[in-house]
Amino acid sequence: MKVAVVGATGLVGTKMLQVLAERNFPVTELLPVASERSVGKEVEFKGKKYTVVSMTDAIAAKPAVAIFSAGGGTSLEWAPKFAEAGIKVIDNSSAWRMDPTKKLVVPEVNAAVLTADDFIIANPNCSTIQMVVALQPLHKKYKIKRVVVSTYQSVTGTGKKAVDQLFGERAKAEKGSDAEYPMAYKYQIDLNVIPQIDVFLENGYTKEEMKMVKETCKIMQDDSIKVTATTVRIPVIGGHSESVNVEFENEFELAEVKSLLQAAPGVIVEHDDAAQQYPMPLNAHERDEVFVGRLRRDETQPKTLNMWVVSDNLRKGAATNAVQIAEYLLSKGLL
Predict the structure, then answer these.
(1) Domain count of the chain?
(2) 204-228 residue pLDDT tens
(3) For an engineered disulfide with 111, which of 107, 178, 266, 279 has Cβ 3.0 to 4.6 Å away?
């Protein structure tokens, strides 16, 4: 099976190659694709070197599937061209997520919506993916009314430039380094917290916050779910963390909540107050699961749960989710 990875030299593209190899996706021929300035460079996959090719060369090679992680503008321009050539596109940008004609998919939640007619499939926002994986089994049982979420997001969600800024600032503070480093953010990120991810909108929320609001309803196929979000950038690299407050229509028991989450696909419960065990990005790093803990009632109002949700944003929040979509398509004979 020919597989194209568009944006193969970027942070997420590199992770996609890693995940495809780790999960033994049946790649018979890899087509790493990147911008014109990267054409001719080499990437490694399963111990072999592959030369980066252009978009037009990739389309001409007719891969079965193209996994995109090259930004919204690139996806808007090129995804339809791949699709017109009969190539299934799984797109990691925000370009197609809220398009009513495109499916927005987290395999553990709504893979069944996919059909043979879906040629451009949207991969959701990283912070949304991990939250809905944890919410889905609870929504099925208790029906969610409202979600209040605050995120604590890794600098890897911004990209390599942000990682370089964080470690450049740290080196300067610890060793007095005068080496130059890029500024991905307006402010220092090391020893700091930035309560802004993406641009501000007219309603005072950021684009990232509104992505969580809209994408949650679309993925869970329930527009009645109310979501309000505050998204925050913190100086970690292992993954995103979320404090999630969930109000249900129906009453719940904590023991049953824990059992439902333990049985849910893609979820690992780490909840042991006595042992001080709870999810942390340090432990979620390079893992594909969504980790859930700090389960407790909101004692200020009925039928409301607090929980802490952590996942590696480059893996389950991006690369792994995209590969899982491809795996599902393959398992259903849609590739």
Answers:
(1) 2
(2) 999 999 999 999 999 999 999 999 9
(3) 107
